Fold:
Amino acid sequence: MSDIINILPDSVANQIAAGEVVDRPASAVKELLENAMDAGATEICLIVKDAGRTLIQVVDNGCGMSDSDALVCFERHATSKIRKADDLFAIRTMGFRGEALASIAAVAQVEMKTRQHENKLGTQVIIEGSEVKEQSPCMCSVGTSIAVKNLFFNIPARRNFLKKDSVELSHIEETFKRIALANYGVAFSFHSNGRLLYDLKPGNFAQRIAGIFGLNFNERLYHIEEHTEPVSVRGYVGKAEYAKRARGEQYLFVNNRYIKHPGLSAAIERAYSELIPDHTYPAYFILLDVDPQRMDVNIHPTKTEVRFIDESVIFAVLRAATKKALGQFSLANELEFNPSTEIDFTPAKRDYIPETPKVSFNPNYNPFRSSGTDHNVSVSKKPSLESFFDTVVPEMTEPLMPEKPVEPVASAAVPINYQGRYIITTLKSGIVVIDQRRAHERILYERFLAASEEKEKHAQQLLFPVTCVFNASESEILNEMMPELRRLGFVIETLSTNTFVVTATPNDIKDNGIQQLLEQIIDEYRSNMLQKFSDRDKNICLSLARQMAVRVGTVLKPEEMQQLIADLFSCQAPDMSPSGKRTMIVLSEKDIDDKF
Structure:
């Protein structure tokens, strides 16, 4: 019988390796940016065209390479960081496996120019599908410029599996953020299709967060810092009131390397227990410093997964540090984004006499006396939710009911609010329990859908226009959503690339919450699009309904509950939320009798 086992050619082996390291344009961006960091660059420029399909270029001012290194770096397992196996457990550089450039060159057309400081001429290398086409001297700046063109040109199947440009660009931007955040002492710029998305100057960690996510973050974060033998923790955690339904603003770094670690993420999130609603997530930007010999980063090709020897200890320290920050700074501490973080403790003068504080009060005030003759306790009013139930569009006079209509609520029914979550009332033949948040989502969703189809918009003009600043990806999504938002009643004008002015909104949206509302709508929209919820009108109506729906824990007044019930039973699909979850449970008399 003839032999059937063969040694793969290098070109095929490189394409297999590329499948592990480079699965989309963002993967190539990650490898090139990490190489630039390892080269000691202080200025790095990222340029992409067509979300990386046509061009990915990284230009740095690092140490550059010699003529021979410029060619050898494209060989598999070519690395300057590893000499022996023990070096794998003392790694503080970003790249070290020696497969990145070889994998990229196997699936793209690559042109590299590089020059060392001591040389007058640099070297140009052109490679196509692992085959070296040219190596020659050239004039170029100190450092390295690598241009990756026509990614996956020789693997059409993989190129066809790439998502649309907006999705691939968002992955590239996320990769850029992760590296730029950890390396805040390095200048970064990011251009897409000739447009400057980011221009980040060197600074401290807080300034880098502000440069990427906007200056409004100075009101959203608490400082966190704790130093122990197994781990040092520093960074910022988000205030509980700014928790979101998506995990988009969660960044955890170990020795300046972005990682994904469910255990450590859970440590941070558990510190927020009972502070934020279920299924919402806090923002955090945490830098951990751990002895490299007590961790292993070589367990995954992308090096985003890590193992720790002292994992339980690190978990406890991280959770305790987060709880300490939330408790210590929750009353009075604002994140400073200025270069100086020193606190002025100017001592008082020697002859200074402190003034005794004065307290004024009304001796005739009685908190238990009402305005009338009654002496019952006066209860302060709960925040009214009437604004939630005001009609955004004209009421539907003949709603289309579902195939199995739900029995109408008895007219004499007095609803009960249970735990600020459920409304309990009677039907003619039993009891109905309504999830008030899901029900309100259904009501708002159908109203917004109807509003988007109306020619006459029901919008409120703002007394003072609201300026909103977003990061680059949020701005891209907002521009994409703009036609649908206008149909709902938003009037938004573009002031600059990432700055917008809101002059009108749909009815009942508060002026002081517009920035946060739009951010949450953008997060919801992005999440829905990734889940292939492709109908943009419905997507935006769903996002807006989720953000404006009454929150769990809100105790409604009887008239508010009655209005919600009436509005719900006027909906086209009252028994299901827009997400496909039940809004109510009906218990018949027989169901109740069976329990006794």
About this structure: Residues 437 and 551 are 6 Å apart (CA to CA).
